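Summary of Year 1 activities. Much of the first year was spent building the evaluation harness for sequence design. The harness presents a backbone, in tokenized form, and records the residue chosen at every position. We chose the following record to illustrate the format because it has been used consistently in internal testing since the harness was completed.
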């Protein structure tokens, strides 16, 4: 429990936050939810049938969000993959949110990358263990500043793509998401009490692949913006 003015036993860490585009304000982050296999082609390339699966979610840590423009190649892995995703930031939340009210909760959108230690994730899958070791490591969620929904609306279609060193690797359209943004919010709110400051990474198109130090990742989502990240 966070008590204002409390005499903490140790100094609290800084509240993780994402800049808001064209503003000096910061968006404080509460939790980070990620939806898995939300584009049919990506589900297939990962060996799954998208027609047989309900949505599922895993988490990253709030301080995994990284707006520095650099991605430090992590330890304990030799197979780290990019996954471009639309970032959804919530200004309000609740339990059991109806689909037709879900977009009222959205503050804005950004472009993000769900960087994944694929080799460690594969081991976890084989052993039936959680994925956090492959997903929730330091700086594993590069992202752009957030663009408020009152500026761009709620993108439901438009190109999403990623280039690796200038070569197109991922391409899709937001309308290819199996679970749309309102459905994600509604479903999640049946599992968790969603809160202001929650972030949802909404899934990635097919074409994921490995990076090496020195690589440059550039990505784009129509209306939302562009991201460029160097692997260091």
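For this record, the design step produced the sequence shown next.
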């Amino acid at each position: 429990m966070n008590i204002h003015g409390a005499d903490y036993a140790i100094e609290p860490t800084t509240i993780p936050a994402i800049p808001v585009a064209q503003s000096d304000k910061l968006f404080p982050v509460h939790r980070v939810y990620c939806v898995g296999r939300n584009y049919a082609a990506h589900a297939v390339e990962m060996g799954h049938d998208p027609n047989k699966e309900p949505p599922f979610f895993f988490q990253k840590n709030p301080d995994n969000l990284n707006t520095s423009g650099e991605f430090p190649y992590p330890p304990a892995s030799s197979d780290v993959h990019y996954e471009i995703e639309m970032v959804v930031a919530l200004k309000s939340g609740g339990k059991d949110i109806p689909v037709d009210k879900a977009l009222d909760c959205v503050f804005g959108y950004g472009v993000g990358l769900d960087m994944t230690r694929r080799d460690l994730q594969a081991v976890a899958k084989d052993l039936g263990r959680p994925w956090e070791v492959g997903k929730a490591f330091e700086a594993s969620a590069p992202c752009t500043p957030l663009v408020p929904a009152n500026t761009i609306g709620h993108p439901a279609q438009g190109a999403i793509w990623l280039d690796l060193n200038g070569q197109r690797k991922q391409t899709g359209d937001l309308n290819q998401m199996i679970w749309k943004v309102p459905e994600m919010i509604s479903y999640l709110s049946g599992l968790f009490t969603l809160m202001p400051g929650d972030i949802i990474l909404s899934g990635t198109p097919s074409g994921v692949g490995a990076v090496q130090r020195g690589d440059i990742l550039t990505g784009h989502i129509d209306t939302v913006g562009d991201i460029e990240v160097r692997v260091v």
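The mean pLDDT is 94. Quantitative recovery figures across the full test set are reported in Table 2.
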